[in-house]
Amino acid sequence: MTPSKTIATAKSVNPEEISHFASMAETWWDPDGPFKPLHRLNPTRIAFVKHQICTHFGRDPMTDNPLADLRILDIGCGGGLLSEPIARLGATMVGADAAEKNIKTAKIHAEQIGLDIDYRFITAEQLAKQGEKFDVVLNMEVIEHVADISSFLCACQQLLTDNGCMALSTINRTLKSWAMAIAGAEYIMRWLPIGTHDWNKFLKPSELCDAAMRSGLTIESLKGMVYNPITATWSLDDHDYSVNYLALAVNSENG
Known about the structure:
Blueprint: H1 15-22, H2 36-57, E1 71-75, H3 83-88, E2 92-97, H4 100-113, E3 118-121, H5 124-129, E4 134-140, H6 149-159, E5 160-171, H7 175-188, H8 205-214, E6 217-228, E7 233-237, E8 244-251
Parallel strand pairs: 1-2, 1-4, 2-3, 4-5
Antiparallel strand pairs: 5-8, 6-7, 6-8
C-alpha cells in the first residue's frame, strides 16, 4: 500500500496498520464501539502508568497532580484515550500518531472537555530527529503494530531524558493469546474488527526485553494483565503474562 498524505511515513510505520485504525477514527470515544476493549483496559493501564511513574520519580501518587512538571509523550495516541487521563494527573502531554484522522479526533475531544494536550501528526522517528525530549514515553498497544521494532524502540530511547522511563503494553505470543485476542475478541465476541491483530507480530516478554536492550533500554518491571469475564474487568498480575502484559523500561544509555 502506498502511504497517503494522511499517514506519516517512517521506517517503523506500517501503512496498512495505520489505515486500519484511521478508518475507525470517529469511533475512538464510543465505549461500545470498535475500541471497547481499550476502554475496558484503560483503568488498569492508567493505574500501572501512574504507579510506575510516581515510583520512578519519587512522587506521591495520592496528591492531586502527581505528574505535575513531567513532560510525557503518548506515542501512537489514537484518539487520546490514555493521553487525557494522564493529562488530568498534571502532566504536560504530547500525543503523537501516524494517522492524521486519529489526531483530528483527539484534538476535537480534548477541546470539547477543556484539556490542553499538544497533539501532533508525526512519528517517533520524526520527533527524535527534531531533538524532542520527554521524561516519560507511553508506548501502549503500539509495538505489535509497527513495521520495524528496532527503529521504533531506538527512536523512543532517543526521545527520553537521561533519567527518563517508558511504559509499554503489548500482547504475548502464546496459544492462549491467539485464542483470546484473535479467535475470541475478533471472530467470536466481535469486540474488535477482524484483522486488528496479527498473532505473528505479538512479542514474548523475553523478546521485548532483548529488543529493548539492543535499543539502549532496560526493562525494570513486568506485570501481567488478566481479564475477568464475570466482572468484565482487567487487573494487574505479578505472574500471569500469558496474554496482555505491561513493562517499564528505563534509559540505560545514560544510566
